[in-house]
Specification:
Distance between the termini: 61 Å
Largest sheet: 6 strands, antiparallel
Strand order of the largest sheet: 1-2-3-4-6-5
Number of domains: 4
Structural class: mainly beta
Number of helices: 10
CATH class of the largest domain: Mainly Beta
Shape: globular
Strand content: 35-45%
Helix content: 10-25%
Number of strands: 64
CATH superfamily of the largest domain: TolB, C-terminal domain
Radius of gyration: 28 Å
Length: 884
Amino acid sequence: MTTLSAGTRLGPYELLAPIGAGGMGEVYRAKDTRLDRTVAVKVLPAHLSSSVESRQRFEREAKTISQLSHPHICALYDVGNQDGVEFLVMEYLEGETLSDRLLKGPLEFEQVLRYGIEMADALDKAHRQGIVHRDLKPGNVMITKSGVKLLDFGLAKVIAPAGRSSGASLTALPTQAGSNLTQEGTILGTFQYMAPEQLEGREADARTDIFAFGAVLYEMATGQKAFSGKSQASLISSIMGTQPPAVSAVAPMTPPAFDRVVKTCLAKDPDDRWQTAHDVMLELKWVAEGGSAAGLPAPVVARRKSRERLAWGIAGVLALVAAAPTIGYVQRAPKPSVPVRASILPPPGTLFDPIDGPPVVSPDGRKVAFNAKDADGIGWLFVRSLDSGEAQKLEGTRESYDPFWSPDGRFIGFGGTGLMKFEIPGGPPQKIADMADGRGCSWNRDNVILFEKTGASSIFRISASGGPIEQVTTLDKSRGEVGHWRPQFLPDGRHFLYLARAEPSQNSGIYVGSLDSKGVKRVADLDVPAYFAKPGYLLFVRENVLVAQPFDAKAFRTTGEPVVVGRDVQYVATWGSAAFWASDNGVLAYEGASHAAKQLVWFDRSGRRISTLGPDGEYDGDPRISPDGSSVAVKRLDPTTRSADLWIIDNSRGIGSRFTFDPARESDPVWSPDGKRIFFSSNKAGIGDLYQKETTGGGSETQLLKSDLWKDPIDVSPDGRWLVYRQRDPKTGSDLWLLPLTGDRKPTPLLATPFEEDDARFSPDGRWIAYRSNETGKEEVFVQPFPATGQKFQVSTSSGRSPRWTSGGRELVYLELPDKRKLVQIQTAPSFQSSAPTDLLLTPHPQGSDVTRDGQRLLINMPAAEGAPNPMTLVLNWTSGLRK
């Protein structure tokens, strides 16, 4: 190989020392000079840099790793090319490989379970992206202080979803057991950990990794390889025709339930193995929680072959618990000593949709209601009885969201074409209120419904029978409150919890309000919603971990420390929606997190999906297309540090490069009209201030405006003279301000009213500004002249946000919540006129968007398509073992 010397600079990365090398990569320890952190840099060897095929393979590896944002997968930070040297920048890991650790003997069983759960979770993430590792072995697992990390996805292959064969065949030999680095040519695995189908030359799928994972589990627990042989032929014969001794026979203290997990992983027929890594993870968690010791049956997990009739292994137990109050069963039946879990997949042809609300268990624990989207991206409400194998689709609930139960379980309320309710088991939906923006509802015994309104700031109430809407809470501007979210009645039916969102976020908190007075009490320092669950807990999600904190619902105070009750739980920050719910009698449901993986997808204006741009990643907010259309700027979260940086993605190659490097949060990129600068917000000084940075030359950013209020840039006038930005004011909320980019740069207000204004966009000729405001009581799109004359024109009719000018200013495209793109024809001479909005396309799960100047293509930031659907987890007796 051609070793680069210490001190060599590749962009901001200074090479310090070589770590290792193989035919397809040289790896160096390096210093990131901008963030002052140690990284690992993988370089394409010089003798391969001239090979088109090698460069393409190197690029594919970068794209593969970049899709796998997960705490237990080695993270990709950056990609680059300098002076003809292609390189990847990855997380530098301190620790030892699992293979090195196994030289000392087997692991403690607690470590086996912990590392196994972490590896299974990481594999599940990869498989949901349609990526099979194909070389899982102890040498590709690093043990660090924070847990294990999967390494070396250089042999990974993108496959068809759900483990289906793509028709390709494997024609190359595997690596030897001691080979830890990717080799040049056709290496496809390591003999000791290869599944029978790999050895037979058949296609690898997710279940192939599960076989290898079983071999790794076996070796961790016993210190011995699951399969061995004196030659390659005898080793292959062992894998194909023998079973290793039971783990408990080698390590007698191992519980039998763990034997079952490993044996199922190592089944010769892929159809007889666990069908998903998520299944294995749940089994290992169950073992870790003492399931085998308690003598309880393992939960039956739905497998891919039987998705049309998902089996609920604990349905009978759940039904008995739900029926207990009426048949006196609880007094006679033994209470389970540990939680019992089941993994449930969505109805065939659908995906659970946490953006449209959590799964909600009925008050008596007999049913669960949830939203799921069909193949066309249309959301529907489903209800499933816990003693039934099928879910019922509720007709008339198209594009519904945020389901909630009446206290007696007779009705399900939901948002949709209005605030609606549906009587169970059947009947047409009934409209409670004619509004399409009610969210986060809670229903008490007196038939009062509390809710929040999209775009509004407070909590409101209405009778479940309909009637006037009344405001219940008022923002406290002295605390910087900007919105009250997710109300929930406490057991007395008069008091309720809610989240008060504030700027800065550390001022946010959980409060108790009352229907009978205006007084409120702060009960928890949280910036996420919290929900009360009997017999006395606050449930909330922190970094995708569901925790329960003891809470006295009469004294309105916490009485103990938080305890983890579930991991990998979905939380949608945009709506403050956490995907979990608990019934009054101990049944908990939650949906698995996607780790926020998103993709940038091109659509044409007919709604046809054209292609994706760049790798999947934790993108946030609006992607911004450069003026010449060659690049896209977007905010992306670092999976390891959780900092937010701006990236620029090349539109032709799909390769992204980091644009900002500060550990602080950078967001809201806006291109200058000539494409030579990007304006953005950064909180490096403690609050969001305005900065600019040149797109070429690698210069540092320049601060444009600093103040005590949070600011985010939104758009620049076509002549480059004005930057319009959003400012959060405790007194007036979200306002629109103008910053001159020449002269004295003294900001002036554009719209600073008691209402919420945002999403401002200049027209191509600079004479008009489109924006959204909630001055009518809900978010709508308006247009006004620039400079302002006092005139304004409403162009949306049933809610609107994210306006985008196209076709030289003759059209305006905007989003009608939750996922409709609308088109309005605009005429500005001799006077302003707009047509009635027409449907353009549906864009499921929109997280942000931009439109090309000609209006022919839309770029949508949306959750990444998964190779397999995220499951829902049901937990019976979830409070078992918790201490109040």
